[in-house]
Model the fold of this input.
Amino acid sequence: MLKNVILKQKQEKEDFLKLNYVRRSKEPFGKKWLESKLIKVILGPRRSGKSVFSFMLLKDLPFMYFNFDDEILASTGGINTDELMKELHAAYGNIKNVLFDEIQNLPNWELFVNRLHREGYNLVLTGSNARMLSRELATALTGRHIPIEILPFDFKEFLQAKNFQIDKNLAFLSQKHGELLKLMDEYLINGGFPEVVVSNLDPKDYLEVLFDSLLFKDVVKRHKVKFSTQIGNLGSYLINNFASLYSLRKLQKALDMKSVATTEKYTKYLEEAYLVFSLLRYSPKSILRIKSPKKIYAVDNGFLNAKAIQHSPDKGKLMENLVFIELVKRGLKPNNELFYYKTRNDREIDFVVKKGIEIVELIQVCYETVVPETEQREIKALIEAGEELRAKNLTIITWDKNKEMEKDGKTIKFKRLWEWLLDSQI
Done:
């Protein structure tokens, strides 16, 4: 049985390597670490391209491959890891580079991985559980790993997949500019899951099924959740309230859940599965950060279009979700380097970017700035927050407006969403 699975997967690997793929923004970072002794751990939601990214990293090296998410394995009652390595070497020969897909499906995987690492194997692992990024992974591999997070396509990757060549000098020719904004609108609504982008699948149908599948596989099944309807309702509620504040107590009452502790546990399960992210309010006082309501964001805008019950898309909120996910893709850690903020006068700042002890940027997201009152509201909030937090870099991200203005001794930069997304720097 195991031998047949390995041979089948070997053929799948060889077929994969013959195809062309969109180059990912994280590829140079991954290549830098590829031949180091550290274990490379590729993390992200299912169907975001982790396996393909790993194949592309290893394509110039001989490597063995095994996918622990194979449905045939579920019926065998477990895998003998000594038998697995014997059969892998029988199929591939004396090779030390190994790619293990969805390693979290192997019980006590960290013991197995540690043993192989000590024996000199060069390991690349993929996993769909954010918990592998946290304390558990650090404890299991004790500093011997480098995590690489792969989320759905960013806008550069999306344009690459659409064969759209961007040249900022030509971007404002009316035809090119119109095409770019049309693609920007498509990305805003349908998101960046690779199969949606490259295969022209119906995004709503595909992503609705994918969301429900992730909910079942990576939450209900993995955590043996008894009340699957409740966690399904929680996921739906959070998606329908994206870019909004929530508190665990209000969630618990609204969904009639057993307790606040259960609500918190279920919310963490959804975060571990990369379905949603929670963002804390910034404050130097830890008690205020903990007690304040959190904001909820989805891992991809396509889930919002597929699962949210709405008469028409709220493009302002979609932009805010997109900017949040882009900041995460650029490496900012939510609740460590990325927060939202409320001023003393209760004016909300969408994003506070923090590096070390310094606040390096405040960001507001505003789809429409042609209405003077709207623009003034955003400016007033930024200036007030800038004074409170001693932040000088103040940015408003708009749909298609660029300018710079001085107000009360502070400079505020308005940036077009597409240009900001194509800028690799924060």
DSSP finds 19 helices and 14 strands in the chain. The longest strand covers residues 348-355. The chain has a mean pLDDT of 92.
